[in-house]
Write a structure and sequence with these properties.
With 1032 residues, chain A is mainly β. Chain A has twelve helices and 52 strands. Chain B is 35% helix and 4% strand. In chain B, a hairpin with a 3-residue loop joins strand 3 and strand 4. Classes of the chains: A mainly beta (1032), B mainly alpha (578).
Chain lengths: 1032, 578
Amino acid sequence: MLCISYNAFPQESIEVSGTVIGEDGLAIPGATVSLMGTSTGTATDLDGKYSLSVPEGSTLVYSFIGFASQTIEVGDQSIINVTLREDISSLDEVVVVGYGTQKKVNLTGAVAQINGEELEHRPVANIGQALQGVIGNLNITPSGDGGTPGAAPNFNIRGATSLSSGGSPFFVVDGIPVDNINNINPMDIENITVLKDAAASAIYGARAAYGVILVTTKRGSDTGKVNISYSNMFGFNSSTNIPNQVNSLEFAEAYNIASANAGQSPMYSEEHIERIKAYMADPVNTPSNIPNPNNPDFWSYATLDNDNVDWFRAFFKAVTNNQKHDLSISGGGENSTFYVGAGYFREGGLLRYGDEKHERFNLTSNLHFTPLKWLRGDLRARFSKDNTDVPSPAYDGDIGNWVHYATTRFPNWSLKDPNGHWSATSVIPRQTEGRGISATNMINLTGAIEIEPVQDWKINVDYTYRQTAFKNSVQAKPYPNEYTVSEVPVMTTNNYFSSTMSQLNYNTINLYTSYEKEFGDHYLSLLVGHQEEYNNYSSLTGLKRDLISPDLPSLGVATGDQTTSGSLTHWANSGTFARFNYNFSEKYLVEFNARYDGTSKFPEGNRFGLFPSVSVGYNIANEDFWTIKDQVNHLKLRASYGSLGNQDVANYLYLNTIGIGSNYPYIIDGVRPNYLGAPGLVSPNLTWEEARTINIGFDAELLESKLAITFDWYNRTTINMFGPANALPATLGAAVPLRNNADLETKGFELNVGWRDHVGKDLSYHVNLILSDNNSKVTRYYNPTNILSTYYEGQILGEIWGYTTDGIIQTDEQLSQIPDQSFIYGNWTKGDIVYKDLDGNGLINNGNNTVDDHGDLSIIGNSNPRYSFGINLGAAWKGIDASLFLQGVAKRDFSPPTGGNSGVFFWGFTGGFGSNMYEETSDFWTPENTDAYLPKPYNSGEVRKNQQTQTRYLQNAAYMRLKNLQIGYTFPPAIMEQIGLQKIRVFLSGENLFTFTSLQKNFDPELTGGGWGAGKIYPLMKTMAFGLNVTF
Amino acid sequence: MKKYVLIYLLFSSILISCEDLDRPPLDTITDKEMTFTKTEMELYANKYYGAFPGFSDKSFSLGIFEEDNSSDNLVSGDYGYDSQLAGTITVPSSGGGWNWSEIRSINFFLDNYHITTESPEVANPYIGEMYFWRAWHYYSLLKQFGDLPWYNKPLTTESEELFAPRISRSIIADSIIVDLDKAVELLPLIDRAIPGRIHKDVALLFQSRVALYEGSWEKYHNGSVFAVADADPSKYFRKSAEASQQIINNNAYSIEPVGNDPKWGYWRLFNQTDYSTNNEVLLWKKFDRSLDLFHMAQNYLGVSDKNSGLSKYLVESYLLQDGKPISVSPLYQGNNTVADEVQNRDPRLAQTMYQRDYARVILDGDTIGRFIVPDLTFESRLRNTTGYQMYKGVYPGADHALGDIGGSIIFRYAEALLNYAEAKAELNEIDQRVLDQTVNQLRDRVNMPHLTMDVGFTDPNWEFPNLSPLLNEIRRERRVELAVEGYRFDDLMRWAAAHLIKRPMLGAKMKQFSDIKDTFQPVLDPTAIPTDPEGYIAPHWNSPAQNGWQFDPNKHYLKPIPSNELVLNPSLEQNPGY
């Protein structure tokens, strides 16, 4: 805590000294000792000692963060020793808000804050993962990259935001907007504040329509003491779940059934099945493959093979590891403080041979100067370097593709040919030949000055320059795709090197001034400021073919065809903001915020918007009539309303841009020409979409603050949203332009209940429950026909339209009685699905596919996660501490994809390329297995008729996951004294250890989507880690 | 005092730094900035060339050589390969070929190019191309959906035309023909055209194709649910004949065996890497590995044909070398083996279908695989379905790992000849001179006897017994010459040939492969191959298409309009039967 000492009354004083200790008998360094009613004071030194000259008859206030303050009349004492008691009420906490701080007791908006300590010892790759489930309605979900080393999760605050654009919270670190907080070292974080409602966010105007995440990094304290801390962690990662492919024999038999159902001849002949059986009986002495009968110097490719491979286990290994080291030095004195933190994090990947990895280096330096009483300065520098090194994307795109590879390989395809070389089907050399290497270097420099010309009037200015430099190289290296029977390698020929460099430059300047004053019971503060932002981006890519030496991947050794491309973009913002706070004896609280923002992203005339908010609070427990103070020691009612713009949209939506492409795949006059795209349609009058939030909540502390409850209910309406394509006939020939034509209403709540107590002197424990929910409805949308192919008014986001399953056709009699399902497919036989004729017209169809005429479709579920929760239990006994953190979603439906290889994890056979068979998908209908779960499989597109979205196969995707389990031991102070260290803690920490869900087991409940198909995502990590934390 | 100076400096700093909010695009142009300079017109026109059929970049697609799977020339292993023919097509909610984006982007050009300051000589070729492309895309929609709305300007969200009803297909066809008249007028002659770009004869040949299609449609669908009111087929036949005659009269093209090789000259036409000096090819698609443009078609073509094979009907349609069909010619050796079948046949059969001992794969120039027996039981995408494998289009020298750079013919002169002969026959204006100018040019290349006005035989298997022998033979010539080049589907549709579509699709006699299976273990498991009672391989035997596709002649000649479109535009009416 920052403390500035003024020596206002130097004369007629007596000298008081003493020691401040805690209940545990340990000295408390840095505790504040101040003269009541003044700002005169001092802080305790390393040993908790202080001395101060005070006027006679004074009263001293002893305070320290986390402890209840004590007030002691000096009288004639010259030595005053004080024991401070831990204060479990958080009301005196100071919470970081936009452009300042506020006492928690005076907050009127929906704000949640957590301390960095709570995130420190999680064996996670980034701050996003650590925040999942920790704060109500801060919804963190894995991105499409899943557990890929270096993958960052998605952030959302309070559910659906906009139907077309933006929607990410606004990230601010130490007052400066950033694009990303995952490159921040969790160890450098002092605290994180989440501003959820419009009132709290309004000071950030158009950047903050969907909430703000404020990160404050650590600073040194001015105790005159230097703190050195080192911690490390070593973890072992395995994947949270891996599907089990069936063996070759089961596969071949199932495949032949599906082929027969589709009217095709069996692919696996008797002879082939015999070979498969022979291999399974004696894999050592049986060749996995035969020479290609048509080309006997080559091994047969794929189909004729008789290997027995579980491709997930062939491509992925069981365990990888990560490690983390952090060192920080902080300290300071009266005129300056410093904090320097350095961190290193490294995580490996799960590819068996790919050796993919991600590393992050962080360097943070926060220097704070107080050269003059009225002048303070800050120099904050943050550097991060993220390196990823993965198998060459030239072959695989992203490495999540390996899950797709695993699903598209049949178990009988050979992994190695009988000579022991990787087979052509294995594609394993792609894990090792050629790399994709990228490095992102971010440097953020902030200089800030605060002038306090008159006490309580502050003028602040800061300037930040940030450069994010991105460098990426990709090599496609020729490799032996297979070996012939006589062991001649057959090389692939893709041979190039490409390099991309890009630079993002961001400049911002803030100038703001604030004044705060207390007059008796009145408190007021005023803040006015202005911010300018300018951002530009440029990139350059060069690609050159035919490296003469593939082992020297560079443009220099390439001799072939070359291509270059690049891009340039920029945008600017300008905003003026103001805040006014007033409270009457911390009982009646009111706050106004407003921001007037302009952005380059909209056309002239529509560029500026004013976004105001108001919030009020009532600390009812401070009233004299509050007679149950012993039971309810704090109760604050809050309400707020505000409006914010959203400028997080693509550039130039109002301009009809015509893209320029190169290398068109049709040769004209001997070259692959450049070409111009076609202009689309735009609305020239695009302007801000606006998010209006009403928030009602309360904070309560009961039973001497042992029980703390915070509740917020909100209703956020996003109005004049960019409607993505109001439905128009396809004859328009272009995507319908975005317009400010849609409204969305999102309602939800957050409940946080905490209990903190101790049993006896040694055992303390806490329980924290978080429950949050959000649900969104489209309230305005231009869709006059109410067609279901796009949004319509009254639509609840996430709703799943599907057929109602009537069962599987089992008998000829049933077959003769099924409704006319020819809308879905022409032919139906036993083992197929019969759908329920909801509208009783004898036909199964979707009517007009509109809300008013949807035939036999109905809403059968909803894919939006509802009732997200986090449960945190912790206890400490003597030096031992333990905590357990559960996170989950209580309600969510998942409908497996209809048709296509995207659905392989659910259906097994999907009618063509990408079909496969897993233990989880092998219970399908055959004449012998009539009470099967899955319908009859087909090896053709016919399979889709049974894979319509329908009730029978709707999955309950609710889950609860043991996100973290941690046990630590802190060595007793007595031992520490002997070895001359302040603190040593050792700990064991586990992440994602167990999952409770009824979802089909091929899926991870957090990864049901995926760019390659449902669930085809690089798996999440289950981690066991141990580590050490030493403070010198 | 100094603190106030500092404050003053701080405030002035923000004034200096005030950002300009006008940040126009730095690396892209907008429609307003487009002035239709030569470069802009050229770049704009370049992007349409991808619509041409053929091999495509790094793709395993067989290009034109897989399109006849949607016909009775090839038999896909999947009986529902073409849902329109199989009768399994359902009404999609969106998409389904109802795509108007190209029409819109072309109309943007045609509606705005007038602001150009280029001279007509510079601008005309590009304007001509745009008319060609509008015709191209409208023709595609016409074939799929019949009646259409006609748009000649880019629509906006406010355009009432979005809700316009469809107008008669013959008006659409007329409009396409008018667009092509403009294209013909504006496009340069082939010798003045930039290599790879469309020229006048391309537009003429395409026009003869469109007019022949519409003429045949209006004639042969007359009286059906697809009939056109006040149909005037001969107007279109005449237009088609005029267009193809213009190409013939140019004397720029000829039919010759490639490499002056009578035995393989027809086959060689389809596996060249460079057609720039070929007298038959009007336009072709070039590939060049140094430009990173190549295709992988040869990995499947002829190796497996990607789960298809030539049909028995196609093989049977080839004449014998005496100019007579298999039903009457004494030269016919029967169909017990593939080798028997090619004996004494039109040499184009042996150049279209694999024979034992044909070179199949050459790797590094020295490993030659031989065709022994078709891969009838491979994984479905690698399997031959009928026992008749494709050889047309096959290039044994292709590098399967590296990819092939064989060119892809887009327009060839043979089509002009066949269009001309057919249109003239339809107009009853055909005579021996026309036959010698057209069909007999094609026959000369392969040393087949000439077709005469009196065909000289009665074929009990004529596919169109109600039509004249000569028209039957002209249609046979078309089928044979253009086999597996992707023409057959359109021909079946415009000839209203439902009776051909509804026949069961068969292949070769199974017995010939069973007899030699022991030399070829383990690929072939004869019990796994379905056959019909006469022993012909019947790929669809275990499917609902056992007795032929469920093609409904009152429904499946056109595709359904997506259901969403009918709702969004209430004045659209669904096609018959859906």
